[in-house]
Amino acid sequence: MKLGIIGTNWITEQFIAAATATGQYTLAAVYSRHLETAQAFVAKVGSAAVFTDMAAFLASDLDVVYIASPNGLHASQTAAAVTAGKHVIVEKPMVTHPSQLAMIEAAKAAHPDVLVFEAARHLYDPNFAVVQDFAATHTLSGATLVYAKYSSRYDDYLAGKDPNIFAPRFGGGALMDLGVYLVYAAVAWFGVPTRAVYLPHVLASGVDGDGVARLSYPDFDVTLIAGKTFNSELASEIYTGRETLTFDSPGELNRVTLVGPQPRDLTQAKDANPMADEARVFAQAIQTGDQALAAKQWALAKQVHTVMGQLRAGTDIRFGNDPE
Ligand SMILES: NC(=O)c1ccc[n+]([C@@H]2O[C@H](COP(=O)([O-])OP(=O)(O)OC[C@H]3O[C@@H](n4cnc5c(N)ncnc54)[C@H](OP(=O)(O)O)[C@@H]3O)[C@@H](O)[C@H]2O)c1
């Protein structure tokens, strides 16, 4: 498949490495706001056509577009790519407000053959299925899911610069950046919560540096801890009677261990590139026209972003492209 990319940061390089390693994608086009940036990027990753005009990029000979721009641009760029008849792999979060899902759905309705996947890479990690199986086969008493990493951009923020990921105009902050991995995990493993509340620590820029969410289910509650201003070494845990399943962050899933009367290491081996599994699954789905998988993942994404909207609705965090 001919791959076009939007965004020229390290994450795009990592995706291209994962994608080309599958043997199913060939980098064909790079969009950047600046010609020099596009050319410098192409020089690093191989050869490809370069574009600074989005319409020309989307009209070019591409099968699939990978979008890794600032969060606030994802929904409109996804809708534009679908409207141009291209399959889309869009970085998380696909939307920064649940109302933006309708714009993408309208574009999808006009192009029913096009598949759209949100690149929630942990869903395709073999250890995600290990935890999912455990949750599905045990009576749960609750869970704590943690993803908090000191952002490489936080130093810039503290120095008075205005990095996109700490900016409300682009839908930045801990919930949108890392919390979305936790909400995805909670909804996939436990279902849609009956109530979702978020207590953020809001930075002067207006986005959350960190925060704690509580998701309520009929028989248990789940605590989510997300942060971009510190590193957490806390384990994530799922509680069930005398046994506890422990793992690092749901966004990393390097080790899964059962603690209890019969402790066991349940970790599955995985690829060194954390985007390898999703790149392979998306290629297979697009090439076989797997509408069933796309519909299943779209339904999950809708549930996740509805919960994300509920979490943010109870806070003072407002983004530049929120509806009036
Ligand atoms: N899956 C993962 O593991 C993972 C890891 C990291 C990031 N991500 C996701 O990837 C996305 C990009 O993250 P990032 O940290 O790379 O973001 P970023 O550096 O702020 O921006 C990404 C790209 O967007 C373009 N851009 C920057 N500022 C822009 C602006 N003001 N207007 C329009 N375009 C702009 C730039 O490309 P040009 O200069 O070439 O136009 C840049 O390379 C985010 O949604 C993030 O959540 C995912």
Compute the number of helices. Answer: 10
Could you name the CATH homologous superfamily of the largest domain? Answer: Dihydrodipicolinate Reductase, domain 2
Q: Taking all residues together, what is the mean pLDDT?
A: 98
CATH fold-level name of the largest domain:
Dihydrodipicolinate Reductase, domain 2
Bound ions, cofactors and other small molecules, one mention each: NADP nicotinamide-adenine-dinucleotide phosphate
% residues in beta strands: 15-25%
Specify the helix fraction band: 25-40%
What order do the helices and strands come in, and which of them pair?
Layout: E1 2-6, H1 10-21, E2 26-31, H2 35-45, E3 49-51, H3 54-59, E4 64-67, H4 74-83, E5 87-91, H5 101-110, E6 116-119, H6 126-136, E7 142-148, H7 154-158, H8 174-190, E8 195-202, E9 208-216, E10 221-227, E11 236-240, E12 243-247, E13 256-259, E14 264-265, H9 276-288, H10 291-313
Parallel strand pairs: 1-2, 1-4, 2-3, 4-5, 5-6, 7-10
Antiparallel strand pairs: 7-11, 8-9, 9-10, 11-12, 12-13, 13-14
The protein binds NADP nicotinamide-adenine-dinucleotide phosphate.
NADP nicotinamide-adenine-dinucleotide phosphate binds next to loops.
